[in-house]
């Protein structure tokens, strides 16, 4: 089999790159939250205990636009429902024991789950999960703290391509896994399902529905082994 | 955001994460089910990439992001690291915007 899982050095380098993206989203969240009247410590606390940048930005944005706090919370929760699905991919990493499961659950983000999925063997997967999840967490927190200090100085992140940086980072994250055909089929089907769904449902729901792409991956696996 | 809102969002988010993990850890799975579960995050992240690239205005929008992500896919398929893939994606989108806006 030609497939090789990323080396520990590569895992660390990838984690740092993901950490930088998380830091920029933290920065942006911190600045937005403080501008919308959130106390700086509360913003930093949010990054530590919510630890899902997309939902934090959405909730802070709604609060900043004068929307109700509960609308912000509900929108955030809808965005974060995908973490429940992602958590299914962290069962092997968590292993046995209530405390380990409880702790692992909080570090379920795309980066940590996919970094683990890219590895062969539980020990390597566990190492990749914690290294990647830990770095993303620390950078997200540090970025948020910095953002609360900078406030309105942080301006148009889209101009420097930050809105494309996140999907591009996920493309890089998927790359080692999708060398295997069932995985590639699942990801492509997920993308197709989500794109069509965007016409009918909110973006957060479109992402959830995309998990059904796994079915296409499964069929591909039944038809032709794990090639190429 | 108030402290109450932050606590509510955190509690709900953690509950969903834990529910997914716990629910699956407590039941033995057939090899088929295990394979299907392992593929779920792949479908989800494929969908996430599409949504982050195309969503806008209550539907689908093709803008600088699309070319940025297309460039990212091209370099990733040729073995580029995650950092390079990300920089190419962001850089392409930023460059396009700079050209269009100038």
Question: How would you portray this structure in words?
Answer:
The complex is a heterodimer of chains A (228) and B (102). Chain A is globular. Chain A is built from 12 helices and no strands. With 228 residues, chain A is mostly helical. Chain B is mainly α. Chain B has 4 helices and 2 strands; from the N terminus they run ααββαα. A two-stranded antiparallel ribbon of chain B has the order 1-2. In chain B, strand 1 and strand 2 form a beta hairpin. Chain B is extended, with a radius of gyration of 19 Å. The model of chain B has no long low-confidence stretch (mean pLDDT 92). Chains A and B meet through helix 1, helix 2, helix 3, helix 4 and helix 6 of A and helix 1, helix 2, strand 2, helix 3 and helix 4 of B.
Spell out the helices and strands of chain A N to C: HHHHHHHHHHHH
Task: State the helix count of chain B.
Answer: 4
Overall, the morphology of chain A is: globular
**Most extensive interface between two protein chains, with residue counts:** A-B, 103 and 71 residues
| Helix segment tally of chain A | 12
Distance between the termini of chain B: 37 Å
Helix/strand-derived category of chain A reads mainly alpha
How is this structure best summarized?
The complex is a heterodimer of chains A (228) and B (102). Chain A is mainly alpha-helical.
Offer a few descriptive terms:
heterodimer; A: 228 residues; mainly alpha; 0% strand; B: 102 residues; two-stranded antiparallel sheet; 79% helix
List the helices and strands and how they pair.
The complex is a heterodimer of chains A (228) and B (102).
Chain A: H1 8-35, H2 40-49, H3 53-64, H4 69-87, H5 91-94, H6 98-106, H7 110-117, H8 122-150, H9 162-174, H10 181-197, H11 203-209, H12 213-224
Helix pairs in contact in A: 1-2, 1-3, 1-8, 1-9, 2-8, 3-4, 4-11, 7-8, 10-11, 10-12
Chain B: H1 3-25, H2 31-54, E1 55-56, E2 59-60, H3 64-77, H4 82-101
Antiparallel strand pairs in B: 1-2
Helix pairs in contact in B: 3-4
């Amino acid at each position: 089999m030609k497939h090789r899982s990323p080396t520990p050095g590569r895992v660390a380098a990838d984690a740092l790159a993901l950490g930088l993206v998380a830091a920029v989203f933290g920065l942006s969240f911190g600045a937005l939250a403080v501008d919308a009247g959130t106390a700086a410590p509360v913003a930093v606390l949010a990054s530590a205990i919510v630890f899902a940048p997309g939902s934090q930005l959405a909730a802070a944005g709604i609060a900043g636009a004068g929307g109700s706090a509960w609308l912000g919370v509900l929108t955030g929760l809808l965005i974060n429902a995908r973490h429940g699905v992602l958590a299914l991919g962290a069962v092997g990493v968590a292993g046995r024991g209530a405390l380990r499961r409880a702790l692992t659950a909080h570090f379920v983000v795309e980066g940590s789950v996919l970094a683990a999925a890219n590895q062969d063997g539980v020990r390597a997967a566990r190492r990749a999960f914690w290294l990647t999840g830990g770095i993303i967490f620390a950078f997200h927190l540090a970025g948020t703290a910095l953002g609360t200090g900078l406030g309105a100085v942080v301006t148009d992140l889209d101009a420097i391509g930050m809105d494309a940086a996140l999907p591009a980072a996920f493309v890089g994250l998927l790359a080692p896994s999708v060398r295997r055909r069932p995985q590639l089929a699942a990801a492509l089907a997920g993308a197709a399902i989500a794109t069509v769904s965007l016409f009918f449902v909110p973006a957060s729901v479109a992402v959830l529905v995309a998990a059904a792409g796994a079915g296409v991956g499964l069929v591909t696996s039944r038809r032709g082994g794990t090639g190429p | 955001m108030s402290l109450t809102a932050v606590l509510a969002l955190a509690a709900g988010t953690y509950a969903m994460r834990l529910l997914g993990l716990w629910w699956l850890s407590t039941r033995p799975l057939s090899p088929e089910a295990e394979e299907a579960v392992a593929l779920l995050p792949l479908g989800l992240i494929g969908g996430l990439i599409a949504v982050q690239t195309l969503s806008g205005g209550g539907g689908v929008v093709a803008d600088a992001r699309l070319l940025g992500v297309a460039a990212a896919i091209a370099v990733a398929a040729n073995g580029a690291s995650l950092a390079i893939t990300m920089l190419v994606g962001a850089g392409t989108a930023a460059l396009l915007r700079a050209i269009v806006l100038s």
